[in-house]
Amino acid sequence: MGKYDDIDLLVWDAVFGDDETKQYCRYLIRKKAQEKGIGPASVYELYKAIGQGKIAGFTVPAMNMRGMTYDLARAAFRAAKKTKAAAIIFEIARSEMGYTDQQPSEFVASVLGAALKEGYSYPVFIQGDHFQVKEKGYKADPEKELAGVKKLIKDSIEAGFYQIDLDTSTLVDITKATVPEQQKGNCEVAAILTKYIRSLEPAGITVALGGEIGEIGGKNSTEEELRAYVSGYNALLGSGIKGISKIAVQTGTTHGGIPLPDGSIAKVKLDFETLEKLSKISRQEYGLAGCVQHGASTLPSELFDKFPKTGTAEIHLATEFQNMIFDHPKFPSELKNKIYDYLKTNAASERKEGETDTQFFYKTRKKAWGQFKKDTWSIDKSVKDEIMSVLEKKFVFLFEKLNVLNTDKTVAGFVKTVNVEIKKPAISGQEEKFEGAD
Predict the structure, then answer these.
(1) How far apart are CA 224 and CA 346, in angstroms?
(2) 213-231 burial code (b ≥16 CB/10 A, e <16)
(3) pTM of the model
(4) Is residue 221 part of a domain?
(5) 84 occurs within a structural domain
(6) Which of 96, 171, 236, 381 is the most exposed place for a label (fewest CB within 10 A)?
(7) pLDDT digits over 38-66, tens only?
(8) Does some domain include residue 169?
């Protein structure tokens, strides 16, 4: 029996080992997952079936794993097994990779390790959220900005990200006279990145892509914007290249919600009518799965069952999971105080005039995940179990409300996991460290 038959140890070393150990453990996790037939996989065919009207009635949750990723993903997989919810996505945004210190290969190792630990048997969908082209960087040096995004895309696909959300909506220019002119830069760069992604795909895999027409937190999206973007994008791609499967729109939410001085979150008037209308247009006119709702995790509980009813394809959830960890009564107070002391110094520039400590910490504590990664992963097991038990119940609630329960057979009918070549890392004279690991 090899050292790395223990999944907990394998994942720990994939995250915290020396560079060579990390690489080898990540390779082993990919290899073990592929042997179990869980992928990673692509939702492309599933979303294509939704766009063709073959299946309907559920909204896929895309769950951002910012911290304690292995434990958090385990809670989600347990909930998925209980509810037979196979249509679920694990994701991380470009910005999150930075402040949580989770590069693509590490994130994949944590999620797949969690699936192996929990005996999960459905395809695992891993997504790059908001792979954003930054307006300032693009205007200053387009080639440099695109090179950075392309490198991230390449690293992500090699790691097993077979869902990527292209966020080029930052390039929308509202000073232009017409909507097609406003969306032109958005269309052009999304098409460039799509062609690049198609050139990198492993044999047998079509990476599922998302587009975006409006910055989350801005004005609500319109039919004209959706048509201008998708039509313009499709024209630039041509008939021989597969395009996006879904489109993110703005309907009144903001990422993370807006914290009030007393610690509560401001009520949001989410425009379900727009969401339903734009999802219908995207399916009927363009064959997409529908619209994507960002910034939704902190919405009132009673709203979640409305998303499947309006034909929303996908919903992105992040901040509430983080809140439930940090605000759990058993989260170590000494560690929380260390985190908040760190933020007072290292996030001071983000503090707005008149902001309370509660508002400041609520908005900035996501920036502490990377700095305190080992500390949070090392929380006493009994405490972690209590925290993750609450998260597991939350995942069950969401899967039920979004109607992805019992989607195991649906996913099996449209999604096929594909074995890809996983490059075995070279070992520099330390073979004994990994002896028997294969």
Answers:
(1) 42
(2) bbbbeeebbbeebbbbbbe
(3) 0.94
(4) yes
(5) yes
(6) 381
(7) 999 999 999 999 999 999 999 999 999 99
(8) yes
